[in-house]
TrEMBL record:
It comes from Oceanobacillus aidingensis. InterPro entries: Transposase_31. This is Rpn family recombination-promoting nuclease/putative transposase. Residues 5-52 form the Transposase (putative) YhgA-like domain. It comes from the Bacteria.
Length: 55
């Protein structure tokens, strides 16, 4: 059986860990992006979604 969307699966599994997500944002994203995100407010969400309301 072939795994469908293997990259999506590893991304979801990795970033479902809140500490990993916070560290990634803090240490790997450029300051211009990092400064727009309140990492202290990051909480796990049951559903996956993206909104059209982007700056």
């Amino acid at each position: 059986m072939q795994i469908q969307n293997p990259h999506d699966r590893i991304f979801k599994e990795t970033f479902s860990n809140v500490d990993v997500a916070k560290d990634f944002i803090t240490y790997f994203l450029p300051p211009s992006v990092h400064e727009t995100i309140d990492v202290a407010s990051i909480q796990p969400q049951k559903d996956s979604f993206a909104t059209e309301n982007r700056p």
